[in-house]
Amino acid sequence: MDPSYEPWEHTNPTYGLGDNVSKAWGGHTLQFGVQVIDSRRSESNGSIGAATGDLQGILTASNQNSQSALTTGNAFANFLAGPGSPYCVESTCTFNGIKSFQQDSAQLRYYNDYWVAEPYVQDDWRVNHRLTVNLGVRLSLFGDYHEKNLHAYNWDPGAFDSVLASTVSIAGRSAAQFGGYLQIGQNPVLLNPDDPSSNLNPVVTNGLVQCGKNGVPASCMKSHRFNPAPRIGFAWDPKGDGKTSIRGGYGIFFEHGTAKESNTGSLEGSSPLVLTMTDPFPQFYSSIGFSGAGGQRVAYPLDVASIPTKAIWPYVQQWSLSIQRQLPGDMVATAAYVGSKGTHLPAELQLNQLTPPPTGPDNGIFLNGNPFAPGEPLITQAVPGSTAPGDCTFFNNSFVGPTDNGINGVIVTQSEPAWQNLAAACYGYAGVPNPNSLRKYNGFQRILGLQNIADSQYHALQATVRRTRGPLTMGASYTFSHSFDDSSDRSDASFVNSANIRSNWASSNFDQRHLLNLNYVYDLPKLSGSVERMTIYRDADGDSEAHGDPKPQSDSGLLHTLLDDWQISGVTVFQSGTPFSVINGGSNLGISVLDNAGVANGAGVGSYPDVVGRPQSALPAGVNRLNPQSIGPLLYNPAAFAAPRGLTFGNAGRNFLNNPHRLNFDMSLLKNFKVTEGSNLEIRAEAFNVFNHTEFRIFNPNIGNTANNTISCYAGALSHFSAAGGYIAAANGQPVPVDCTTGSSFLHPVDAHRPRTIQLGLKYSF
């Protein structure tokens, strides 16, 4: 429940100066010039970096990992459940169903500025009448982003004092204390009730440095000004007959980046001027918002942002090789290979996540520390839907499992590598410690590192053919391509494991494997002459005949105006669907959790399910493609997914599925009327998706967070923990059916591309 950070103010004035000069000299055409840009950005911080921009606070409720007394299985019902609720089964129920409350202490105005100067020189050298070579270089001279009022603060791991951090701990929960806050010894770290950002205890701001002060550069990073970007290309006519052209090129292009990447723009809303803290499981409604016992304002572990201490600019290498050939029948065809390689692209990682869980071969239990067998998910309750103990049962600082005999016979103690991951995955259940007490950088929660460390690749075969003959122009283009990356943009919230960015390598969010485009423009024949030739007039003998040579008609001008100069055109597109990730959302039946690997990332998607079949296969018996409680049809088979093995990220991986492909027809009909010699009237009728073909999408990033790609229901072991539902074993041992598809949005469409749209236009040109 997020009231958002509006009102938000933003201006981005940019001042540019450029000039270009060209000189022809023999077979050379020299070009040189320069572009200078001064870019300024003024805005009140919104949701950027660690900050939410939200002064009113964000409440989070969940259908899992709530207090053990709250077993409604519904996130909103958990939120409503509090003292006096029938779901509070404990004798003294003081816990409400709020999973967390997050709030910023302030919202400030920031002024970021940078300059860029890019001189270039290029020589287009006509070696002979068959070969032209292009040689050039662009010098990208980049200034750094900096906040002119020195309001930017960076979290620098080199400034973090581990000795100071060892003096602080995380308060645990008890019947009388809400816990989760910072304490030194048994004393809570307090905030100034009137001005939370003043007189902060050093343990709260450990590692934070002010950009532009105490020897720290104004940009908080060491500059890297000089970035040469060479380019080379050629065009060659192998036979010299003007019918074939072979072209190729290579170039490097540097990108200064936006103010939301690895620069001070991402430090807007940074501590200590703006404190972003999260209160986990507030004990009382009256205690949310940093207020503890007695109305004291206590400090929780901060969320902070971190940018590199040395400027590393993103760049892309692009190359291509094409052959263009004139063919018989007024046709021109082109075939090309096009590729690119992006380096040092921006990515946002959680630097303070826990160590990833131990992994081992799938042929045994507890190999390398994972107590869960292959195909065995983490089950928070031994009997889903009941209050019986499960894998999250915690006693004497150990995970004793559902039978007090451990998980698969192994009691997970603090000496086991899996202990801290189980603590993070099971956090919220009785006695389980707060994962903030287990982090590498003690005293902090999320440390969002904006780093230029991602990579991308793009490879494509592109083919086009065009034919122009008489009144008809037709063209076709086809691209077979594949784009890979490990971060499609800075805000690509798909990292389940920030410790290994390469594990995110997959098809890009915008990848479209096949793209076919057919287009045509046809000038319709003159119809007025045909009508005139069929004009019927009466002979002297009174017979009616049609003659091939008509007499001039008084209305021929009108016929010409109405029937001639019509044009029909259209575009037909077939394109593959863009990829999306299938997310493990856990289950209100106690099967799996969002943070299935137990790394307390808090900046990514949490985990993926396990893949156990083909999503394109037929639906199993009992699962209907359409049901009255879900919107739209099931577009894939949910039985292809199952709850992930405990303490793993799931094997589905990023961007595992694709949206349905699209086949679309757009057409237009237009007519030009000559009004005067210097003016023209055009009437136009256009139809988009003319056949009104419904084209679904399961995932649309422009809509925001939806559940259409998230699994929130699994059956039990009797049905191999299938996302399509099945059975669970109840307390009495009798199988109980679990319906995971009726009313679910998983793998149902979130929206569709545009319906048929018809529009009329009238344009007068003079």
Structure commentary:
With 766 residues, the protein is mainly beta. It is built from five helices and 41 strands. The chain has a domain of 35 residues. The strands form eleven sheets. It has a 19-stranded mixed sheet that branches. Strands 4-5-16 form a three-stranded antiparallel sheet, with no helix packed on it. A three-stranded antiparallel sheet has the order 10-11-12, with no helix packed on it. A hairpin with a 5-residue loop joins strand 38 and strand 39. It starts with 9 loop residues before the first strand and ends with a strand. About 2% of the residues have low confidence.
Major β-sheet, in short?
19 strands, mixed
Distance between the termini: 55 Å
**What's the average pLDDT?**
87
* Unreliable stretches: 87-94, 544-548
Radius of gyration: 33 Å
General shape: globular
The percentage helix is under 10%
Number of helices: 5
Question: How many strands?
Answer: 41
How much of the sequence lies in strands comes to: 35-45%
By secondary-structure content and strand pairing, the structural class works out as mainly beta
Topology summary:
Blueprint (H helix, E strand, L loop, with lengths): L9 E2 L2 E12 L2 E17 L13 E3 L14 H6 L19 E5 L4 E20 L2 E12 L3 E2 L5 E3 L6 H4 L3 E2 L11 E3 L2 E2 L19 E3 L15 E11 L7 E11 L21 E5 L21 E5 L8 E13 L3 E20 L43 E2 L2 E2 L19 H7 L18 E26 L2 E14 L20 E2 L6 E10 L4 H6 L2 E3 L5 E3 L9 H8 L2 E10 L3 E2 L2 E2 L25 E2 L29 E2 L14 E2 L3 E15 L2 E10 L7 E2 L12 E2 L14 E4 L5 E4 L12 E2 L4 E9 L1
Parallel strand pairs: 17-22, 30-37
Antiparallel strand pairs: 1-3, 2-3, 3-6, 4-5, 5-16, 6-7, 6-8, 7-14, 9-13, 10-11, 11-12, 14-15, 15-18, 18-19, 19-22, 20-21, 22-23, 23-24, 23-25, 25-28, 26-27, 28-34, 29-33, 31-32, 34-35, 35-41, 36-40, 38-39
